[in-house]
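Quick one, T. Sequence first:
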Amino acid sequence: MAKNPGKPWFTGAPRPTFPLRLSKTRLALAFLVAAGSDGVSYGTALVPPVQWMVDLLTALLLFGLLGWRWALLPGLVAEAIPGVAVLPVWLLVVASVALWGAIQRSGPYSRP
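Structure tokens:
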């Protein structure tokens, strides 16, 4: 049986995606972890290996508290750049997750 390349491989309606709501307790704990990490990172800006370990531990804790969020990965990359540790990157990342939640996939595009 040959497959029809013009027909999608799935049949039926797509499943609706519901954004995961975070509890206030988890968000408060995430803000505390982020604030603590930014404070420690500010003090360890001259010792990069210690700062990397703090950032890795922070990312793991935030993944545990907030779940898999794509917004955490750019925060981890930004913290690895020398000199960025003086900015409150983790607080900004947690604030963006709190405000916008998960990155949603847009609907299907129609082609002309």
